[in-house]
Amino acid sequence: MQALIKLLHQSPMGQILDFKCLSACEGRSSSEYTRRFSISFTRRGSFGYHAGRRSYDIHSGVMLMERAGCEYTVSHRCAVKDECTIFEFTDEFVEEMRESWGSSGGQSILSAVRPLAVLPTTPGLEFLHAAIRDAAQRPLWRSPLKTDALVLSLLQEVGQAFGDQRRCNQLRSRRERLRDHQLEALDRAKQFIVANFRHELSLAEIARHSYISVFHFSRLFKQFTSLSPYQFLIDVRLKHAALLLRHTSLPITQICFDSGFNSFEHFILTFNKHYGRSPSKYRRQ
After folding, report:
1. Spatial separation of the C-alpha atoms in residues 249 and 251, rounded to whole Å
2. On the chain, which terminus has fewer CB atoms closer than 10 Å, C or N?
3. CB 6 within 8 A of CB 17
4. Cis ω for the linkage preceding 229 (within 30 of 0)
């Protein structure tokens, strides 16, 4: 398969690749093999992924996980070339993840990927994906340590996503009915929310950025993500706050407002409901 591949980040954990397809839309590629355990996020476009007797429609809103040695072919059906971010992990790190994380996180991921898995993303995963790309692509701010820490957070979030297979099955049937132009609109909406989560956003503003009507957008977004745009925004804000609590010593009040909340009381209640503990307890644990 013809593609433009750019290395964004490399460390003993593995590497992050920016992948842009250059192949023709018609036909299917020859058989290829996954070199390492990998997790792929599609930022734009869509493609068919075929492994054994199974076929999947891969697009934004789902993540593709493959074990090393997985044989697959790819097909394209639309004019929009797919663009992906691929996280490849070294064999040594995969073994370390298996031994260190036990029955949670990494172990649940590795046991579920046989030889591949396709699961829906979450607002937290969407935010972490964007944050990792941002950290890896800033030459003046680039910090391998920060990027690796974000990748670990991503893996932990992926491990939690395995816990809701029912949601996975519900969303799969819904997404199969979505058309390419609808996926493009939803891509723009999610990217706009993740990039502007600190600001007060209106439904009309997000819909206008996505080039669809407010009424159609609200229904389509809920169908695609199982969340309202407001719930998606709140989840992104909470994930940002959790990262600051985990990796900085900033005061909780400052984290509240830096994450887009305009009420400290609302932040505490929402955080406690989402994570099952207060921000201060989350930081200590």
Report:
1. 6
2. C
3. yes
4. no
